[in-house]
Amino acid sequence: MSFIEIKNLTVKIEDSVILEDINIEVNQGEIVSIVGPNGGGKTTLIKVLLGLLKPTSGIVLIDGKDPYYAIKNHMIGYVPQKSKQELDFPVGALDVVLFGLIGKNLSKKEKLDLALRYIEYVGMKGFENKIFGRLSGGQQQRIMIARALVSDPKILILDEPSTGVDVVAQESFYEFIKRLNQEKKITIIMVSHDIGAVVSFSHKIAGLNKRLHYFGPAKDFLTKENLQKLYSADVSLLIHSDECLTCQHFNPMMLEIRH
Ligand SMILES: Nc1ncnc2c1ncn2[C@@H]1O[C@H](COP(=O)(O)OP(=O)(O)O)[C@@H](O)[C@H]1O
Ligand SMILES: [Mg+2]
Question: Which residues form the ABC transporter domain (predicted)?
């Protein structure tokens, strides 16, 4: 049995089908990126994995059990889609990371040591006492990742982590994700619009638009047929060598999708 198993998953919200007959298997230690058009059900799929939304039909198992147990046992770290609310909340970076240990049976000192260790791990040492809302987009993202990792989860789920982060910060972010996966053998599930980048470092791609139009090796994803099916649009594949800052580091290919 795979580490994460999604079998014949269908989700309806108020009679409209949001996800239909989704089948996904993820092995431990894999990086799987979910791509697809806006409104295609990516966040909904993540909500099911987080146990926040019940399947209308089908089965979702994490390590053989209902997602509820995975959450309860701190098996999943989650970096949500960026919300404006967090920016306005005057809270220190260290406190944000400590939130990730709520419900953990540890002493105050143990929690503090762990939080400081993970702040250092994400390259934010020295920013502990800064107001979270005043950090740059890339710095906030690192703090949110420290918060997700501090409870030592087996799975890290990120929903559109690069949105609102500048290109140079995005590059080091992808390098960081790769290192994290290699060092901690953590399973990573990530929603991204940055197809050129994710294809180059993910093991598998899930192309989602209500149905799963593609699920397989990342290296076989980038065909015109796959992209047309997924985006139901006129898709042009543009090959760049050095114009695209984000891509040149990972893949000399950039995508332009025209609707
Ligand atoms: N709570 C909800 N009530 C009604 N419709 C919803 C709800 N959540 C999501 N949807 C609908 O489900 C579809 C998929 O949304 P979502 O999973 O957020 O897509 P994505 O993350 O791929 O942009 C959209 O059409 C959205 O309007
Ligand atoms: Mg979404």
Answer: 4-235
